[in-house]
């Protein structure tokens, strides 16, 4: 923000985009700069008389308010964003001339938006859903948008099917529900009539679809792109964002309860982490391969329902991304940011992936309907940070004041110095001249796209047993929400081709007979197990970035709280104090401890691990409170590490929580809740919530 005097001496206060800022204290004006005396009362004829039409102050205020909302994104409506930077750690000029990858240590500013897909803007953060992971790099060669997801494959192979896919998952058209949910008839109907979706469905029914935090989520460019180097040589490339805190998820029962306790769970987490200086970070890995290698694979690299296993082409880490600044204004930045997969820069090019090709049109098109003008690129968050020149002019909401006479090319006026003209360029985006003869025009699906089950099977079989249990439980839950029998049967007929045992467990869970298997377009094969596909097998062994909840009462021992706090500080773990009243408690020593959350509004689902530290008297009080019992029961059912003071054992007993390896005595090991904050005791799950 800056303050400057105009020639006439008027002081202008502007933000980074040149927009007016309200700092408090300045006289209020209309949008046209007229100072106004009163922003609270409309202009009336007499003290109790009618409001006058001439009140332009009132009319302008209401007029602007009436038009504050813009259409929400047709998909990915609910999201949150942040500014940051990408830093090159391993330059790859031999592979690409893309500017972010040229020099070690070179930093490029980025804006990132994370989102859910199906829900409306006002829905919750924790539905079972894919998460968007869209990154805008503001490079010296223009904006490059890597518009990805937290799942490396997609439901469909051809953009032609996208409107149908989205119609099927959105609230059903006759009744307008369910909101932000895939567990309903129309979605499963579409899915089970589109077997190409089976691989993506395995991911969607896995824990990947209920991330603990955006900070603990990997991202993927999904499509195969092309890298092009300065000599014009191309290779195929796939992009992966790998979270520094590694991927972690919540349990389904937690997700359901979090959506009630804090529908903004993921958004708040990102905001708090960044504003507290705990800046989230990802590595960017690339998988690079050539056309010959691609031609030998049992799948087509142009098919977005397939991934390239990391065991076959390991990730080469080329940089890191840090998000270090939350937007100043949610609407101006996060809501108005417009990502375009068609935004590529010299060194990055598309492939013939038919899903990607459709996206190249859709995103540009949708911004016009969402942001209302072809000039959406002038909105500060969308504007390139490098020089930009062309002869496109005018249009709604034109904010540039183009000067000079020539608004066309070729022109000779430029030479006369009246117009700057296009930037002289020996460095520019040149489409990779794919020389392949693609044959006659036809509407069809390539034969090489026909195997719908092998990678779905590979994903399922690469999971640990608890992860497989979660997939079985998720599909059982979803299909139990499906009312139409034939849809369940259709779905199960495909699931049999993925894994017989999984399908049998789901059928048992629903309580129906296993139908015949669907006839595959191409017989699946057993691909090699890929550990990289499992969250559990690639999990972190550090609790950094997690949050511990400490439930206290009057008389709680100071030393126990202190031990947790100091262990947490050393480990980069956050601690929140929870008490019956927000005003806090008086500890054993007589010290007052303020609470960060009121017990009734801060259930244990908000934390990765908990400590329940009541005094003798406090434990008796807690035993009478339903939220206290839920706090303990849920922490136990959600397989978390629990530290308890001796009196709190009674609370555990009251909720039938049998102490096990993840229940620790505060007298012995108060910091255990910090040490195990990134872990769950999976063996407890069979006891408390067995999968079918
Ligand atoms: Fe999108 N998608 N998409 N999508 N998508 C949109 O563009 C679309 C697909 C993704 O935070 C829309 O600006 C088509 C794959 C993200 O602003 C829209 C197809 C992947 C975001 C659109 C796909 C994505 C969007 C709606 C199939 C992962 C949010 C608003 C051909 C690689 C971006 C907008 C943000 C948003 C179309 C498939 C990711 C309608 C036609 C595959 C992260 O244009």
From TrEMBL:
Binding positions for heme per the UniProt entry: 73, 113, 162, 359, 363, 370
Gene Ontology CC terms, in alphabetical order: cytosol
Molecular function per GO: catalase activity; heme binding; metal ion binding
TM helices/strands, residue ranges: none
UniProt EC number: 1.11.1.6
Catalyzed reactions: 2 H2O2 = O2 + 2 H2O
Ranges annotated as biased composition (Polar residues): 1-14, 28-44
Keywords: Heme, Hydrogen peroxide, Iron, Metal-binding, Oxidoreductase, Peroxidase
Entry cofactors: heme
Catalytic center residues: 76, 149
PROSITE patterns: CATALASE_1, CATALASE_2, CATALASE_3
Gene3D superfamilies listed in its UniProt record: 1.20.1370.20, 3.40.50.880, Catalase core domain
BP-aspect Gene Ontology terms: hydrogen peroxide catabolic process; response to oxidative stress
Region named Disordered: 1-48
Catalase core domain location: 29-417
Function recorded in the entry: Decomposes hydrogen peroxide into water and oxygen; serves to protect cells from the toxic effects of hydrogen peroxide.
PANTHER family hit by this protein: CATALASE, CATALASE-B
Protein family according to the UniProt entry: Belongs to the catalase family. HPII subfamily.
Protein name as it appears in the record: Catalase
Origin species: Celeribacter indicus
């Amino acid at each position: 923000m800056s303050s400057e005097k105009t020639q006439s001496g008027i002081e202008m206060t502007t933000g980074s985009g040149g927009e007016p800022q309200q700092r408090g204290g300045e006289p209020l004006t209309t949008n046209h700069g007229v100072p106004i005396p009163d922003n609270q009362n409309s202009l009336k004829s007499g003290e109790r008389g009618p409001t006058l039409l001439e009140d332009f102050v009132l009319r302008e205020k209401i007029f602007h308010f009436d038009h504050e909302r813009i259409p929400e994104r047709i998909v990915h409506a609910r999201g949150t964003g942040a500014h940051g930077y990408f830093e090159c750690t391993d330059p790859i000029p031999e592979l690409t001339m893309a500017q972010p990858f040229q020099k070690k240590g070179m930093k490029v500013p980025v804006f990132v938006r994370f989102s859910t897909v199906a829900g409306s803007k006002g829905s919750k953060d924790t539905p079972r859903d894919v998460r968007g992971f869209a990154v805008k790099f503001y490079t010296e060669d223009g904006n490059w948008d890597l518009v990805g997801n937290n799942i490396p494959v997609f439901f469909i192979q051809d953009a032609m099917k996208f409107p149908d896919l989205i119609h099927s998952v959105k609230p059903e058209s006759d009744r307008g529900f369910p909101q932000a949910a895939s567990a309903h008839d129309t979605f499963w109907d579409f899915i089970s009539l589109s077997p190409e979706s089976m691989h993506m469905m395995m991911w969607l029914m896995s824990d990947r679809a209920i991330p603990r935090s955006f900070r603990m989520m990997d991202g993927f460019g999904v499509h195969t792109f092309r890298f092009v180097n300065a000599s014009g040589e191309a290779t195929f490339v796939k992009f992966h964002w790998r979270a520094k805190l590694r991927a972690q998820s919540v349990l389904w029962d937690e997700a359901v309860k979090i959506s009630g306790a804090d529908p903004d769970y993921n958004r708040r987490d990102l905001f708090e982490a960044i504003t507290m200086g705990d800046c989230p970070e990802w590595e960017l890995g690339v998988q690079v391969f050539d056309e010959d290698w691609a031609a030998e694979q049992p799948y087509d690299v142009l098919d977005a329902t397939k991934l390239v296993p990391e065991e076959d082409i390991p990730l080469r880490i080329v940089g890191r991304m840090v998000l270090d600044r939350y937007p100043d204004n949610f609407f101006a930045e996060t809501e108005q940011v417009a990502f375009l997969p068609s935004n590529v820069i010299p060194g990055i090019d598309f492939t013939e992936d038919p899903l990607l090709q459709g996206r190249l049109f859709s995103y540009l098109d949708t911004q016009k309907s969402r942001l209302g003008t072809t000039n959406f690129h002038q909105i500060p968050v969308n504007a390139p940070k490098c020089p930009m020149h062309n002869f496109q002019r005018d249009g709604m909401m034109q904010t540039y004041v183009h000067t000079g006479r020539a608004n066309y090319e070729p022109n000779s006026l430029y030479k006369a110095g009246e117009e700057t003209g296009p930037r002289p360029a020996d460095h520019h985006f040149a489409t990779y001249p794919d020389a392949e003869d693609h044959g006659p025009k036809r509407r069809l699906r390539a034969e090489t796209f026909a195997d719908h089950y092998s990678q779905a099977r590979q994903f399922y079989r690469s999971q640990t047993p608890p992860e497989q249990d979660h997939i079985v439980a998720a599909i059982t839950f979803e299909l139990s929400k499906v009312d139409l029998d034939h849809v369940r049967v259709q779905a199960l007929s495909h699931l049999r081709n993925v894994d017989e045992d999984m399908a049998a467990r789901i059928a048992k869970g629903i309580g129906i007979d296993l139908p015949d298997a669907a006839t595959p377009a191409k017989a699946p094969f057993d691909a090699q197990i890929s550990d990289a596909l499992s969250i559990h097998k690639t999990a972190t062994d550090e609790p950094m970035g997690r949050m511990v909840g400490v439930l206290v009462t009057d008389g709680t021992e100071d030393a126990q709280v202190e031990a947790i706090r100091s262990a947490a500080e050393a480990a980069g773990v956050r601690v929140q104090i929870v008490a019956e009243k927000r005003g806090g408690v008086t500890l054993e020593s007589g010290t007052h401890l303020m609470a960060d959350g009121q017990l009734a509004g801060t259930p244990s689902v908000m934390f990765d691990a908990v400590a329940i530290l009541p005094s003798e008297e406090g434990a008796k009080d807690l035993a009478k409170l339903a939220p206290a019992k839920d706090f303990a029961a849920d922490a136990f059912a959600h397989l978390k590490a629990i530290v308890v003071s001796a009196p709190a054992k009674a609370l555990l007993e009251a909720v039938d929580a049998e102490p096990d390896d993840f229940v620790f005595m505060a007298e012995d090991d108060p910091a255990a809740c910090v040490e195990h904050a990134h872990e769950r005791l999976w063996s407890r799950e069979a006891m408390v919530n067995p999968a079918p």
